[in-house]
Amino acid sequence: MLRALAGLVAELRAVGIPVSPTEHIDAATALRFTPVEDRAAVKAALAATLVKNAEHVAAFSTIFDLYFADRQRALPSAPDAGPTQASEVDSAGGGPGALGGLTDDALTELLFRALRDRDELLQRAIAGVLVDRHAGIEPGRRVAGTYYLFRALRGVDLTAMLGRLRDDAAGPGASLVDTRLAEVAAAELVDAFRAEVENEIRARLVADRGAADVARTLRKPLPEDLDFLNATRVDAAAIRDALRPLARKLATRLARKRRAHRAAPLAFRKPYPARPDLVVLADISGSVATFATFTLQLVHALRSEFARVRTFAFVDGIEEVTALLEKAEDLTDVTRALNRGTSAVWLSGRSDYGHALRTFARQHVAAVHGRSTVLVLGDARSNFLATREESLRVIADRAKALYWLNPERREFWDEGDSVISRYARHCTAVYECRNVRQLRAFVEQLMPA
Question: Is the whole-model pTM more than 0.90?
Answer without folding.
Answer: no
